[in-house]
Automatic annotation (TrEMBL):
InterPro entries to which the protein is assigned, alphabetical: DPD_II, FAD/NAD-bd_sf, FAD/NAD-binding_dom, GltD-like, Helical_ferredxn
NCBIfam families reported for this sequence: gltD_gamma_fam
Superkingdom, taxonomy of origin: Bacteria
Keywords: 4Fe-4S, Iron, Iron-sulfur, Metal-binding, Oxidoreductase
Domain Dihydroprymidine dehydrogenase: start-end pairs: 24-135
Domain FAD/NAD(P)-binding per the UniProt entry, residue ranges: 150-458
Single GO MF annotation: oxidoreductase activity
One Pfam family linked to the record: Fer4_20
Protein name, UniProt field: Glutamate synthase [NADPH] small chain
Amino acid sequence: MADANQKFVTVPHAGPAKAAASERVRDFDEIYASFRVAEGTSQSSRCAQCGVPFCQSGCPLQNNIPDWLRLASEGRIEEAWRLSEATSAMPEICGRICPQDRLCEGACTLEQAGWETVTIGSVEKWLGDQAFDNGWISPLRPLTELGRSIGIIGAGPAGLAAADRLRSAGYAVTIYDRHDRAGGLLTYGIPGFKLEKHVVARRVDRLIEGGVKFRLNTDIGKDIAFDDLRGAHDAVLVATGVYQARRLSAPGCGSNGVVAALDYLIASNRKGFGDAVAAYDDGPLNAESKRVVVIGGGDTAMDCVRTAVRQGATSVTCVYRRDRDNMPGSARETTNAEEEGVRFEWLAAPKAVLGGSDGVTGLRAARMALSAPTLDGRWTVEEAPGGEFDLPADLIIEALGFEPENLPVIFDADDLAVTDWKTLRVAAHGFATTLPGVFAAGDIVRGASLVVWAVRQGQDAAAEIDQWLRNQDSVAA
Ligand SMILES: Cc1cc2nc3c(=O)[nH]c(=O)nc-3n(C[C@H](O)[C@H](O)[C@H](O)COP(=O)(O)OP(=O)(O)OC[C@H]3O[C@@H](n4cnc5c(N)ncnc54)[C@H](O)[C@@H]3O)c2cc1C
Ligand code: SF4
C-alpha cells in the first residue's frame, strides 16, 4: 500500500472553513467549522512523520501527534481518536482553543522548514467531533470501586481532567464549585465563538454519567469549611484557578463605565445561556451602541473586544502597551479581531479615565516605546515624551490579567503555603501542597496559563493522588 503520509509537497496546508467576518459577528457561534472527513484525512496526510516529533515536544500533553495523524490519513479515524484521548481528557476542547502557533504547530518541522504546519489542532478537534457524533466516546466505567473518596475544589479543566482520571481508577469523586455551572473558564470565561458551550457540557455530562458528583453553588471557605471538606474525603485537590483581577491604577479608574473583563465576559456568557443578568440588561455590562476601549493584550482582551463587536458596539479599540509582536495573546485571535473590525492602538498605555459622575467619556493614553528585551524575549516599554492622546469611550474594559486569591485566608488554613506570586506552593516535580492529603493543579499552581496545561496538571495530579493513597494503604497493611 502506498504511504498515505508525507504529502506536504502535493497537499497544500488548509484550515477548516471559517465564517466571513461580516457573518460571524452576528452571533456567538464558533467561527471555524469542523473538517469534513476528506479534509481531515488529507490534511493529516501532510505529516512528515519525523523521527523526532518536535510537535509532540511542543504539546504540553506530549500528545502522540504523528501517530494519530498517520492513522487518520489512512482513514482509521476511530483508532486515531483512541490514541488522541489516551493522553488527553478533552482533546476536542484543546483542539479548539490551544494557541497552536505557540505550541504543537509552532514546533512542527514543516512550519520550521517553510512548508506551513500540519493543521494539528483542527485535526484534533475533528477527531473529537467525529467521536461524539459516531458514539465512540467510551463511558466512564471503573473496573472496580476502591472505596476511597476524593474532593476536588473547582470544576474548571484541571478539576474535570483530574476527575476523569480518578473516577476511571475507581475513586468516588465529588467536585465542588461556587458557580452554578461546571466548566470554570471554559464555561464562563471563554466566549462561544471560540468554544461553544455544548462542547463543554457533553464532557461534564460524561463525568456525571460515570458517577462523578457535582456540588455546584458551593463556595469552599464560605458554604463549607475547608477543614470539613478535608475531613469528608481521603484526599483533596485544589483546582480553583486565579480570579483576583489586576485593576487599573490611574486617575478616574473607579468611574461608572469602567468594568473588569471577567465580569463583562461572565455576563455575556450568562446571556448566552438565557439567564437574566440585571447588569447586562440595565447597561453597565452591555456594549451595545457604545464606544468601547479594552485595555490589555492577552487572550482575555481579545475575547472582550470580539464580544463587544458582537454586542453591537459602535466602535471597539484595544489599547496595549507593547507592539503586536510582543503581545501575550494568540496571534490567530488578534487577526480574527482585526478582521471583525477591532482597531488596535499598539504601544499605548492608559494615563487617565476621562469623564465625570455621569460616566466615562474617554481614555487618555500615553504613547510608549520599546526599550530593552527581557530574559523571556519580550521587550520592556517606556513612555515616549509628548505622545499623549485621547480616545472617546462610553465603556472601558480592564483586561490586565489575574492573580490568585488569598487561599490561606479564604480556607482559614495558615499552613497552606503560597509562593511569592501567591500561587499554591507544591512539592518539586509534583502536586502535593504543604498540607497532608491536599494537592493542587491548574492556574492556582502555574498562575494564569492555558487550558492544555490545566488538563496536563489535572491528569498528573490525579496519578499522584492515586499513588499517595496506595502508598498509605501499603503502610497501613
Ligand atoms: C477570558 C479568558 C480567555 C481564555 N482563553 C484561553 C484560550 O483561548 N486558550 C487557552 O488555552 N486558555 C485560555 N484561557 C486560560 C484558561 O481558561 C485557564 O488557564 C484555565 O481555565 C485554567 O483552568 P483551571 O481549572 O486551573 O481554573 P478555572 O478554569 O479558572 O476553574 C476554576 C474553578 O474553580 C472554582 N472555584 C474557585 N474558588 C472556589 C472556591 N473557593 N470554592 C468552590 N469553587 C471555586 C471557580 O468557580 C472555577 O469554576 C483564558 C482565560 C480567560 C480568563
Ligand atoms: S493539546 Fe494543544 S498543543 Fe497539544 S496537540 Fe492538541 S492543540 Fe496541539
